[in-house]
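Recall the central idea of this unit: under ordinary conditions, the amino acid sequence of a chain determines the structure it adopts. In this exercise we apply that idea directly, starting from the sequence alone.
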Amino acid sequence: LSAAAGAGGGLVQAGDSLRLACAASTRVFTGYVMSWFRQAPGKERECVAAINWNGGSLYYADSVKGRFTISRDNAKNTVYLQMNSLTPEDTADYYCAADGSRWTPPYNVMDYWGKGTLVTVSS
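Accordingly, the structure predicted from this sequence is:
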């Protein structure tokens, strides 16, 4: 799993938008639940969004509901996290993860984890 921020990198201003993308191998994507997590300094890791294998089921943490959108392109083995109306409280390391279990969000333990990508939102 390889996560990266979209054009413009991971440093944005409050109110801006940013899209994260996470590419996976076909083996670790097809049929898997994909999730985005984040961890801010001094805080616990949080599952912010999840999507089931065909995109028919979605989960969002209350902290991002209405602002973040998770989606997946199964043809490209890629999951996205569109983040709008960003605030400094969204500053964190963001991770994508994959799990082969049934749909039971929010997730904590996942089968596979990607490396984090830092998102910094300045005020």
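The chain has no helices and eleven strands.
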